[in-house]
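Cont'd.
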Amino acid sequence: MTTRDPQATALARLAALFADETRAACLLALLDGRAWTASELARHAGVAASTLSEHVSRLVAGGLLTEERQGRHRYVRLADARVAQLLEDLAAQVTPERAERPRTLRASSAGSAMARGRTCYDHLAGRLGIAVTDALTARGLLEQERGFALTDAGLAWFASAGIGLERRGRRPLARACLDWTERRPHLAGVAGAALCRHALDTGWCVRIGSERAVRVTAAGERALFDLLGVEAVALR
Amino acid sequence: MTTRDPQATALARLAALFADETRAACLLALLDGRAWTASELARHAGVAASTLSEHVSRLVAGGLLTEERQGRHRYVRLADARVAQLLEDLAAQVTPERAERPRTLRASSAGSAMARGRTCYDHLAGRLGIAVTDALTARGLLEQERGFALTDAGLAWFASAGIGLERRGRRPLARACLDWTERRPHLAGVAGAALCRHALDTGWCVRIGSERAVRVTAAGERALFDLLGVEAVALR
DNA sequence: CGGACGTTTCGGCGCCGGCCGAACCGTCCG
DNA sequence: CGGACGGTTCGGCCGGCGCCGAAACGTCCG
């Protein structure tokens, strides 16, 4: 007891950052990959600004968030893709039991927009994410049966579509991310991020309001069908 | 504030299970994939049996552990591979800063045995795990550059070596698991588990004492060289 | 049957951490 | 310059949780 396992200590300390409902709500909100101000998070989580300030400070100190100060604002975002992945993994573990039906119509429609298409940190999720992942797989661009990897044809497809895949650090090119709403894996990793970025840059999708939900535009439907054979009906 | 996000609640509740040093120590110990009795865990964690009993009950109630009662013993193990993976992910996030040097000779030699070879829930890790993963990759049996997947040749190799790969559930055939000591990915998933099971069954490796560390036998060195070209020096 | 032993329950203690409001600090802008 | 506003710090309150030891329970075994 005098000599505790330092790994256990560190693990407990890390987990403690997630182990508070207010902080968890903030982290899940930040899973949209964008920077939020402290007061936005306070409103979102329903706590006083002072309370939230302390939470954010702990998350930053713990390496889960990075901050950028601009004038009187404190912008904060998830530190990196590793943190986002960890958060996804925890959320995925938890969501099976989230069988509760939404109570209000507003919550229900917001939920269905999220289920239709959303960002998951820096890649696409929801039926949109699944449709793209399935289309890539059906065309032999992505291997799912024996793991999760791009094929030769997949590499060529990204190149021909003008979507650059730059390897940086140890982040894998392709990675599976379990979809909360679909209960199936969708494409994450460098390729997932590049595809999502391209989709938003070229207007295939636009964000709905200030939340994580995205909507596929008419141009996007056309492009997804032309390039991947994604039927518009799969996005409804 | 009256209507809290149920997902945030569930996430915080799950994380809270990891957010205690004693529970974390138990979970890390259970990462050897075997069942421990409550009193073994109490001794390992350095707390009273009564204290540990409550911890174990919480972990079982939270779905992280499953229990088997045999007579007056309560055996407990990680609930499934998903839990083990989550634990690995959390541990991997934490270990980079674990730069502390071991203090005692005993801890140091135990540490070096663990670094040489160990099990990580149900697959091989440490230099042994890395050596096997590298050998598979070098021989074109495993694809790492574009994700983490078995190749056609890889499937054939497992079949010819008499190592069955039965897909059950959604567990991927091949998956990357970040090695704590080597800071590089090693093979996990169905293939990793099958390989580890085969290695222990056929006597390629034996467990050292009652811990997670494993030792490669002379027969194991021969087999690993013959089948995969693994040099014995990579295992030292 | 009776003692040993693994486990659990219970009461009680102490600490940590989340919460708020009030005061304060900096920045922005009219 | 002065008010508005975002953010932070501080003190104080409260609840939850981890810890223990004592007592009870169940099983095993001589």
